Every structure is written in C-alpha cells, then in structure tokens.
Amino acid sequence: MEISFAGKRALVTGAGKGIGRGTALALARCGAEVVAVTRTRADLDSLLLECPSIRPVCVDLGDWGATEEALREAGGNVDLLVNNAAYAMLQPFLEVTPDQFDISFNINVKAALHVSQIVARGMKARGTGGSIVNISSQASQCALRDHTVYCATKGALDMLTKVMALELGPYQIRVNSVNPTVVMTEMGRLGWSDPGKAKTMTSRIPLGRFAGHIHAVLLLISYLYSAFGKYSDPLTCFPFCY
Ligand code: NDP
C-alpha cells in the first residue's frame, strides 16, 4: 500500500530532533506540505538542508502568546497535526520542584491543547475534517521510577486526547495518540542510557529491544492516514469515549 499525503498540509511540533524530525521528513516524502515547529533555529536550518520544501516555524511552544502569533498564518489550513514536542526531567517524587512541574505541564499538555485548538478551529471552519495525533507515552499507563511529573503529564495528555476525540469527532476530525516505549532519541538517552536500567525495560518487551524512532513514525503515520486509531475509530473507540 502506498501512503500519499499529496495535497495535505501537516504541522509537526518538536520537529527539530528525534521522533518529530523523523515524522516531518517522512510526511514530506509522502507528499505533504510540512510545517515544522520547534524552538532551536539550528535544528530547523539543518532540517531545511535535508528537505528544502519544509516550512520552518521557530517558536517556544511554552509561550502562549508567541505560539498564537507564530501559528496565526502557518496554523491555518492544516489537515494533519502531530503534537510531538515534549519535555522530560527526571526527579524522584520527594524531590519534585514546582518549576519542573510547571515547565513539563506547560509543554506536554498545555501546548498540545493550544496548538490543537488553533488547528482544529481551522479544520472546523473549513469543514474538511482532519487528523490529529498526540505523542503520549507508555509512561501514561505505567509508573516509572523518577518520572513522576513526566508520567503525570502523559496521563493528562491521554485524557486530553480522549476528550478531543469525543468533541472533535462530529467535525470529522480524528484524534488519537501513540504511546511508545523507549526510543533512543535525546530524550530516550536521558532516562535509559544506563544498561542496568535499560535491562529492566527491555526484559519486559517481547522482542527484547527498544524501538527505533522510525517505528514510532510509522505507527503515527498510519493513525494520520486512516480511520485506524484507538480513540476515533468507530471499530475501537469503545470504551474510551462515551
Ligand atoms: P527529543 O527530546 O529528541 O525531541 C523533542 C523535540 O521537541 C525537540 O526538537 C525539542 O526542541 C522540541 N521541543 C521541546 N520543547 C519545546 C518547546 N517548548 N517549544 C518548541 N519545541 C520544543 O524527544 P523525542 O523525539 O524522544 O520525543 C518525542 C515525543 O515522543 C515526546 O512527546 C516524548 O514525550 C515522546 N516519547 C518519547 C519516548 C522516548 O523514549 N524517546 C518514549 C515515549 C514517548 P529543543 O531540543 O530545542 O528543546
């Protein structure tokens, strides 16, 4: 099966590195017009060298006003949205600090909500429908040591995704999440570079190894492409939405 996004505009957040970068490149290769949003200019510069058709937007998604401004034009006419940008900081529960809590929720939950609002308003106004994928994590379902705040943000993101699926479904906007286990990106290395720690995780994965970021990219692209996806698909949405 050939996947083509020709004629579609896709917006990917956190497109400078890791899974987001891989997603932006894969969507462009599949024919989409891609808007890549991230906050490090150098990452956008190197992304453009790799794929000159990508449209760069440099903004800190933690800044509500700046995001509104940056996406005023680029966020319109979007058919496919991937909320991928996230922040992870490891702290044991008893040492969690309020600033880390606020930064994490601001990016991992509030920015996903905000960018989705901007994009979904456009989809609703145009009456064209669309597809949104939020990149959550296994950490939304499983308690991970030193991941208190990260786990909590991803649990919140899962519930945000379900309510978005419920409320945006009538406009033919599909909303789903993918919940990867560890992927060895910059973020993945932060928590799982230590072989001892990694073993506790890989020993629970049937194939005994972590995924490459391309696995995550392929799964989320399948959610973008088709009705397939756990929350919005008429076949699988129950019991997630009521
Ligand atoms: P990376 O840390 O490799 O990349 C994250 C990207 O998001 C970077 O380009 C980063 O830019 C950008 N970003 C972060 N904060 C902001 C911000 N405030 N404004 C704009 N851009 C921002 O992460 P991964 O690729 O590993 O993770 C991608 C997604 O997958 C995340 O949602 C993560 O939670 C999820 N995930 C990852 C797993 C893993 O093991 N890697 C496992 C499960 C889920 P900059 O570098 O400039 O900050």
Task: Report on the architecture of this protein.
The structure is a single chain. Helix 1 (18-29) packs across helix 8 (213-225), helix 3 runs parallel beside helix 4 and helix 4 (98-126) packs parallel to helix 5 (148-168). With 242 residues, this protein is an alpha/beta fold. 46% of the residues lie in helices and 13% in strands. It has a 6-stranded parallel beta sheet, sandwiched between helices. It is built from 8 helices and 6 strands. The structure holds NADPH dihydro-nicotinamide-adenine-dinucleotide phosphate. NADPH dihydro-nicotinamide-adenine-dinucleotide phosphate (NDP) binds next to helix 1 and helix 6. NADPH dihydro-nicotinamide-adenine-dinucleotide phosphate binds next to helix 1 and helix 6.
